[in-house]
Amino acid sequence: MIFSIARFSLYFQFVFLTLQGFDDHRVLALPKTSENYSLQMRPGAPFKIALFADLHFGEAETTDWGPGQDVNSKRVMNTVLDDETPDFVIYLGDVITANNILIANASLYWDQAISPTKSRGIPWASVFGNHDDALFEWPMEWFSAPGIPRLICPEANSTHSGAEACSFRGTHRLELMKHEIDHNALSFSKNGPKELWPSVSNYVLQVSSSDGPKSPVVYLYFLDSGGGSYPEVISTAQADWFRHKSDQINPDLRVPELIFWHIPSRAYKKVAPRFGIHRPCVGLINKEGVAAQKAELGIMKLLTKRPSVKAIFVGHNHGLDWCCPNEKLWLCFARHTGYGGYGDWARGARILEITQKPFSVKSWIRMEDNVVHSRVVLSP
Amino acid sequence: MIFSIARFSLYFQFVFLTLQGFDDHRVLALPKTSENYSLQMRPGAPFKIALFADLHFGEAETTDWGPGQDVNSKRVMNTVLDDETPDFVIYLGDVITANNILIANASLYWDQAISPTKSRGIPWASVFGNHDDALFEWPMEWFSAPGIPRLICPEANSTHSGAEACSFRGTHRLELMKHEIDHNALSFSKNGPKELWPSVSNYVLQVSSSDGPKSPVVYLYFLDSGGGSYPEVISTAQADWFRHKSDQINPDLRVPELIFWHIPSRAYKKVAPRFGIHRPCVGLINKEGVAAQKAELGIMKLLTKRPSVKAIFVGHNHGLDWCCPNEKLWLCFARHTGYGGYGDWARGARILEITQKPFSVKSWIRMEDNVVHSRVVLSP
């Protein structure tokens, strides 16, 4: 079941809005009637994707500076969207900082994070980072006077209800994703196969030629790299799912594939440049060590052996924005987009531009001050 | 509301069983019609309490040796109950090791832990330890092949139902206590005032003279010392609750008071004997440092200033069984009763014997091999 009634009506609302006013949006989102959601390119135009990484909305919500960060993060997204007018946006994890959100209003912050994209009628997809869901940890200081703060229960949060909504508890990936999907016809996110849970955001989207949905140009694979409520890994089961899915929909490896997840795999440590960034790597900042997943359980072996896979894109490290080749596969960081999270490096977003004939993937980083840098071609 | 329908009918079942066959049980449990549950002494007899500490049922449930531990722990309890025939039992926390219990069947292990007491018709009360409730932690090894084990969903666990019951999640103090209370008329445990949550097992029981419930002999205070899903502390709010409650029911300090919780307060570190156990301390094992609460937020100040408080009893440290005076207040460890949990020191249970006229509290430790040691008088 792809459509709930609400989702169906929202979809028509989207189509209506599209016909009415959003004539500047560049992609035709086909009805989501198959398991593989389909995005369609416009005739004669490249397909442009903006990656928004590590926004960390809702961080330090009770302070003066916390909500100010979110305002700044929205400004970055607005700037990038106005400058680049992408066809599609990928939220590359750590959309929110759930760790510090006191009540089950995480989805309200999530809504804020997607609002610049949504308000422009641009479709998007999201994957989870390690800060998006979290176990609830009781702060020690609540046990001395003045005690546990009174809960302020959000009325607007229709995903949750009653006592369950208004209690101190952690956020859950499934709830966050359900809220995004149920309330947004423009969202191409999916909960992924149930057998992969607690890992959730595992799915594939097809970008089709303007000729029609039977002419795939590229497959976009999204994987949940864990963290938060469970370990930071891509599991053997996820690797198996990728192998089966890619064999099924792209058996002859003719369609190029791009991969998106949040936490760099351990292979990133091997290719990481030392003392600055030198060719063949391309990027502007190399300010910290790679904070890789806790283990490598098979996915990298599959991806490096598969020539149709062109590049992997991750966030997580706010002080890294490079792309480096690992044999024929590019390993890329996005760019820290949000004012939330650690680090004061200038904010921006990695852009991908995909052409069909001949197939190519170009990338660059668009900064908040409109500067563009780190142009690189990620396809032969 | 004290009685649910089920509880009410169970209570009558208990009274019926008592009249029928359990004539060897020593205490008359009065109907629980007031906030302060009342236990009544038999004419001319002392009131004897057995403390069962750190049973850790359900530990390593998937191994060969885990369930074997629980069998051994039951044997210890059976031996103590047969030798001492106490009037009342106190489960002093860490009844289960919830950390490693995969599904919401923690209450089934809890049922096993109380079964030796219940089957003899002896009433009891319980407090929580740091291992009784727990956040769910996904083991790293589940993310490589062979993957996440299939859930085995317990049908017998009527506290939980449907998908919520059969999912990987932590245990909750409120659910554990609800299960104990709803299914056991002999349980004198309480959920405690709602304003003290997430701290749960905070309540007081009155032991009355054989003359009737208007002649209290001693008040037994139970406090939740935290741990597991929240920090290991007795909060300022709990201290305030104790102050109000004790001022209300014992304003002239005429009735002696005994205190029970799981994790030693920091005051235990100050009185801890060094190199063996010497007078005025009394005990047999002193094998480790005191693992105290994370902070001292007011309860000890109240207790030491209140001459009606005679002693505090804790578990938590399996390698300590001493009582030491802290001015006029005795600080006592129980004795590790369970085969679950760390340490191979011989198992036993601290016994308390309370007389009415004149008031006295004597204590000793009854071992699994029937030996009795560490006799001490805890009242002037």
Q: How would you characterize the overall build of this protein?
A:
Two copies of one chain form a homodimer. By secondary structure, chain A is an alpha/beta fold. Chain A has one domain: Purple Acid Phosphatase, chain A, domain 2 (4-Layer Sandwich), CATH 3.60.21. In chain A, 24% of the residues lie in helices and 21% in strands. Chain A has helices spanning 5-20, 65-84, 106-119, 162-165, 173-183, 236-249, 267-271, 299-304, and strands at 28-29, 37-40, 47-52, 88-92, 124-127, 203-209, 212-222, 257-260, 309-314, 323-326, 329-333, 348-355, 360-367, 372-377. An eight-stranded mixed β-sheet of chain A has the order 1-2-6-7-8-9-11-10. In chain A, a hairpin with a 2-residue loop joins β6 and β7. In chain A, α2 packs parallel to α3 and α3 packs parallel to α5. At the A-B interface, loops of A face loops of B.
